[in-house]
Design a protein that fits this description.
Elements: E1 8-11, H1 15-20, H2 25-40, E2 49-53, E3 56-63, E4 66-75, E5 79-88, H3 95-117
Parallel strand pairs: 1-5
Antiparallel strand pairs: 2-3, 3-4, 4-5
Length: about 120
Amino acid sequence: MKRNYIRHIQAYGDYFIEFKKTLDKEVLKKIYFVFELIMSVQDVPITFLKHLEDGLYEIRVSQGGNAYRIFCCFDEGNLVILFNAFQKKTQKTPSEPLEKAKKIMEQYFQEKEESNGKD
């Protein structure tokens, strides 16, 4: 039976895919659980999805005492675009992955705008 989701999740580039390759099965199971929640629930709890700034969000996953963050944004209201990710080792989000996510998001929307102009 096919489920009707509120949102869809799509990775942009290879950033998330490469990160995913470094994770064990239990962490991946938890990440996919959170993805399922994001796709299914209208109001996603801040525990799992937090707005950071300027349209940039972080998907928040905790597993086995470790915290993982996946940067993303919304596009067209119901499409979640995944960017880079990292394992969080401190309370504060490090500036390097955050700055990288901002650049990737800018690149995503620039490419989208350029491809829409070609139609």
